[in-house]
Amino acid sequence: MVDFGYTLMTEQTGPRELVGHxxxxxxxxFDFEVCSDHYFPWLDAMGHAPYAWSVLGAVTQVxxxxxxxxxxxxPIMRYHPPLVAxxxxxxxxxxxxxxxxxxxxxxxxxxHVVGAGWPPVNVxxxxxxxxxDIIDALLAGGYVSYGGQHFRVDSAKVWDLPEHGVPxxxxxxxxxxxxxxxxxxxxxxxxxxxxxxxxxxDTAGPKGxxxxxxxxxxxxxxxxxxxxxxxxLFRWFGGGWKVNAELPGTSGFAAASAFVRPEDVAESxxxxxxVDVDAVVEAxxxxxxxGFSDVALVQVGGDQQDxxxxxxxxxxxxxxxxxxxx
Length: 326
What we know:
- With about 325 residues, the protein is of the alpha/beta class.
- The protein has helices spanning about 15-30, 50-60, 80-95, 110, 120-140, 175-180, 195-205, 225-235, 240-245, 250-255, 260-270, 275-290, 305-325, and strands spanning about 5-10, 30-35, 65-70, 100-105, 145, 150-155, 170, 185-190, 210-220, 270, 295-300.
- The protein has a single domain (about 5-325), classed as Luciferase-like domain (TIM Barrel, Alpha-Beta Barrel).
- Helix content is about 45%, strand content about 15%.
- Strands 1-2-3-4-7-8-9-11 form an eight-stranded parallel beta barrel, surrounded by six helices.
């Protein structure tokens, strides 16, 4: 069985609207909701970047059923690991145990704001591994002191902990990160439907681990409008995460995607209305065929969510579930 989720895309929607979208997504029948955690949008045209943890706190109070997850939080610079552990424990308690902490190693776009420079990728991975150690220890309870190459923690303790802990999800991109984190995490996060990655995760960790993917779509009754919107707001998506992790600001993403055409975006992002439900299914299908257990949809355009929820409830989710069951 494949579960289908909704993405609270902080880069394209303000905080009050995001909370309303979370409630509407639950009513529409989504199984879970993931929330991005950004200091900057990818492009100026997206126009938003509210504080994800405040949004999630409010979302816990307007939803009852859906699982919640950060997708993803970066505990290496902008947040110190003990703070992330505290945030995760509090969100889990507020949600009644519906929260999973999704972690990743970060992007320059969001972390440069602390003025410490952007480390090379090998250093970031070292920092991330240490951060996971600290967060794990704090969520297990008790006082934690830690002296690593990159982080020091002195007698930290999270006082309000959920009884059954907080599940940990980790974003991976290759065999090295799978080997390092599959034995330690409850959930795999990846944005590409890579069957080899899923198989490696199952081999490195106990069988049955969840694997969560994500895909953008641009739903609209006017296909041309859907394509234009996807190009205006999501043309950065095609750069790949090795590029996306390094660029320091929205101007860099605008320059890197300056020659991406609307038709290029439409080839990778399903665009259109109810006549294209099959296109959505075909775009999402590679994820469950690769072994993903969960797929979160991103509806492109912060002011385009209401009609999307109607379509999701009536057509998109039923079609996805029927296809996945086959």
